[in-house]
Amino acid sequence: MIFAPVIRHSAYLPGLRVTDRHLERFLGQALQKAPARAAEIPARFEQDEQHCTLQLDVPGLSREQLQIELTHNTVRISSVADAPRQYQAAYELPQDIEASQSRARLENGVLSITLAKKAPLDPVTRLTIE
């Protein structure tokens, strides 16, 4: 006597459909044009007492295709929607930034951002004796 397993085809169909959906979702995410992340593009960071300098390699992007936003101690860099290469990143700095004295320069695909640190306010007020 020979025993052969009997397989019902309808029992395997839901499993195959789930596998197909997982494969479609994986391929859709892998092939989708995603913006570059900060971990993919290394940044060089230097600081002294008055300034912080952030240097990023952004080849293929012009000045008009980049946007830099400063808020308190955060720098956000992103490319515009129609740029040939998408980039977005945010960096948190150890101290607040003085936006009026900060500047950015793009030369040969290297974005250099020099950020002036805000001077800490002295909490002590001295009174003169009359």
TrEMBL record:
It comes from Curvibacter cyanobacteriorum. InterPro entries: A-crystallin/Hsp20_dom, CS_dom, HSP20-like_chaperone. Transmembrane segments: none annotated. Residues 38-128 form the CS domain. Residues 34-130 form the SHSP domain. It comes from the Bacteria. Pfam families: HSP20. This is Hsp20/alpha crystallin family protein. SUPFAM superfamilies: HSP20-like chaperones (SSF49764). Belongs to the small heat shock protein (HSP20) family. Gene3D superfamilies: 2.60.40.790.
